[in-house]
Amino acid sequence: MAQAQRAVPDDETNRPTDPEDKNREREAQASDHKEHEKKPSLIRRHPWRIILAAIALIALVFAAYFVWLIYFHPYETTDDAFVDARSFSLAAKVSGYIDEVTVRDNQHVAAGAVIARVNPRDYQIAVNQAKAQIEYANAAIANAAAQIEVANAAVDEARAQEASTVAALQFAQDEATRERRLVQGGAGSQQASQQAEANLRQAQAAYNQAQARVTSAMKNKVAAEAQRNSAAASLKQAEAQRESAEQNLNYATLTAAQPGRVVKLSGSKGQFVEAGQAIAMFVPDEIWVTANFKETQLADMRPGQPVDLTIDAYPDHVLHGKVDSVQPGSGTAFSLLPAENATGNYVKVIQRVPVKIVVDQWPTDVGIGPGMSVVPTVTVRPRN
């Protein structure tokens, strides 16, 4: 019997069995439930904290708006910008061996500075030869002028002889006519008439010969004038050859047309270069910034607006400038192979438009050249 009895837990043995105790327990639970229902809300418990938090939130929203309005809204910026310049190659205009290279890599030169010299010997010979041709042409002109003078004298002499023969011919004609009349009247002799006719023929022949001499003298004069014109043409040709030879001689010295820097120098003393062969690249002092803005950033962008710039290589140098111009078209429109959107499936892509920005003053203590990255910030709207 003792083993068959069920073990009674301690909590059951301690559980009150008095009905009054059960009533008190139920009243206590009901009282706790009422107190829980009457507990005030968080807003009622902490009203000032909620109000202060709301005010702080509103102030934060207004502060964010004013920060955007002052520090972001008036500006447009892009990281697709770089230093740009009209760089070009320095090439020899004439062929030959380089005698001297007077500059170093990345050296700054002034306008007119000598960069390299090609051996001028062949071109100096060409100049001397052209000068000799000029002297020869001048001598030919002088000779032709003398021949013209001689021809003029010969023409004058021939015309004088012609005038003399004209007088002799006129006398012979009168004499022959008179003798012919005397013979017809029976007063003259046949022999005298024949002699007069012979004299007339001789005078006529002398007159024809004088005319031929005049014609010959005039033709000699024309020939002399033609020689003079030919010599004058030869003189002009020789002068042109001399000018060309002197120009080639000047081209043998390669100079800078404007101030700038010599970069990528490849020419060296003793090197043979052909006409048009580049020996270096030249970067002019005139440089600017080309910034590729999105087309959605150009609504308020106009020339003359102020720009603040920072160079990636020298972030401690803050530069100032202004918008010079906006390219009338996107960058791809002027590329070698522009996009053809009329064929295939079209996907709209925001285009970028190059904007030229000029800098007021470039720093002189650092080297700045084309291709260096720049971050421009353009003030396109008035600051509030």
TrEMBL record:
Stretches for region Disordered: 1-40
Residue spans of biased composition, Basic and acidic residues class: 8-40
Coiled-coil region(s): 127-161, 193-255
GO BP of this protein: transmembrane transport
Keywords for the protein's UniProt record, in alphabetical order: Coiled coil, Membrane, Plasmid, Transmembrane, Transmembrane helix
All residue ranges annotated as the p-hydroxybenzoic acid efflux pump subunit AaeA-like beta-barrel domain in the record: 288-375
TM region(s), chain numbering: 48-71
InterPro entries named among the record's database cross-references: AaeA-lik-b-barrel (IPR058634), MFP (IPR050739)
Xref: PANTHER family: MEMBRANE FUSION SUBUNIT OF EMRAB-TOLC MULTIDRUG EFFLUX PUMP, MULTIDRUG RESISTANCE EFFLUX PUMP
Record protein name field: Putative Multidrug resistance protein (HlyD family), emrA-like
Organism from which the protein derives: Neorhizobium galegae bv. orientalis str. HAMBI 540
